[in-house]
Write a structure and sequence with these properties.
Layout (H helix, E strand, L loop, with lengths): L2 H20 L5 H24 L3 H19 L1 H23 L1 H24 L1 H5 L4 H14 L6 H21 L5 H23 L3 H34 L6 H33 L6 H28 L8 H4 L8
Helix pairs in contact: 1-2, 1-3, 2-3, 4-11, 4-12, 5-9, 5-10, 8-10, 8-11, 9-10, 10-11, 10-12, 11-12
């Protein structure tokens, strides 16, 4: 395919499309012409991509097609479409693609928390390092439970949500380092194991489970997902596959940041449960059922919608006109 000849033959159509897109008001005939030229330009773009992937010409035509599409569909429709795509395709697809990483992190975290808890419970030195007997007794019988009712429920929900969303975002965004996500996951498991050991040592295991389970099932899973996303990004840097390292990191980075944004909604639900359900004077089986239901919805969202979205070609990455043109790579 002779690109110079192709461009020369159709340049007038492309420039006419630019003129129509740039006009504030179009007549009926001009609108019809705009639609026709948009479709023509889109076909030209498809032909150039398949026959002669010239980066400069593809970028030029991609920009024209995207701009014309925006003029035809209008800002409001594009935003509504983008929101639906993000909620029902991008986020579940991104979560689904790291599901095995999430399961791996979850197993490792729970195992580490159990090891730390058992070791602390059977090691006087480890238990003593957490505080004096009086302080630990006060923590087990008063502080642990009163923590959930110290602030008003709305303020507490907002505080918990923002703190956990910040931790999740840091886990994902710092994934390139490999070290920070591991440290945050390690610290989380150790804190959980030590708190459980103190409560068991004082005969408060039931209180511990009844207070941490309602919100903890969803909240901890969100942290597992965030840690998995961060570690997946680090692995992509080490093993980019057939793509260049820069392209692989850019693509996976955008998709995994989608995970962090999506987790803010799940963590908001966890915050509401922690503020309104955990301290509520209702039977603890009811509380745990609520927490388990919220966790079940997250996994259903991930596995059912995620599988469907991935099968349809979604990855969690931005659309091409949003992410920008990527130069073709050999191999």
């Amino acid at each position: 395919m002779d690109l110079d000849a192709f461009a020369a033959a159709h340049r007038d159509q492309w420039e006419r499309l630019d003129v129509l897109v740039g006009r504030r008001h179009l007549s009926g005939a001009e609108t019809d012409e705009l639609v026709s030229l948009y479709r023509t330009c889109a076909r030209h773009l498809s032909r150039v991509r398949s026959a002669a992937p010239d980066p400069q010409l593809i970028a030029e035509l991609s920009s024209r097609v995207a701009t014309a599409r925006g003029r035809l569909t209008g800002t409001r429709e594009v935003r509504a479409h983008s929101m639906r795509r993000f909620m029902f395709q991008a986020v579940p697809a991104a979560l689904y693609r790291i599901r095995w990483w999430t399961c791996g992190v979850m197993v490792a975290e729970i195992a580490l928390a159990l090891v730390v808890g058992v070791w602390t419970l059977h090691s006087p030195e480890a238990m003593a390092s957490l505080g004096s007997p009086e302080r630990l007794d006060e923590y087990a019988h008063e502080a642990f439970e009163s923590y959930y009712s110290t602030y008003s429920a709305p303020d507490f929900a907002a505080q918990v949500w923002t703190n956990n969303a910040r931790i999740a975002a840091i886990c994902v965004a710092s994934g390139i380092t490999g070290v920070l996500p591991l440290y945050m996951l390690y610290a989380n498991a150790v804190n959980l194991g030590q708190a459980g050991a103190v409560m068991v040592d004082h005969g408060m295991l039931r209180v511990f489970l009844s207070l941490i389970s309602p919100h903890g099932l969803l909240e901890l899973t969100c942290i597992f997902v965030a840690g998995a996303a961060g570690l997946k990004l680090f692995w992509t840097m080490l093993v980019p596959g057939p793509r260049s390292r820069f392209t692989a990191l850019a693509t996976e980075g955008r998709a995994l940041i989608t995970v962090a944004v999506g987790l803010t909604a799940a963590l908001a639900v966890a915050g509401l449960i922690e503020a309104f359900v955990t301290p509520a004077p209702i039977a603890w089986p009811v509380k745990i059922t609520i927490g388990a239901g919220a966790l079940g919805l997250l996994w259903a969202y991930t596995l059912i919608l995620g599988r469907s979205a991935v099968a349809a070609g979604a990855t969690g990455d931005l659309e091409e006109n949003e992410a920008g043109y990527v130069q073709p790579e050999a191999g």
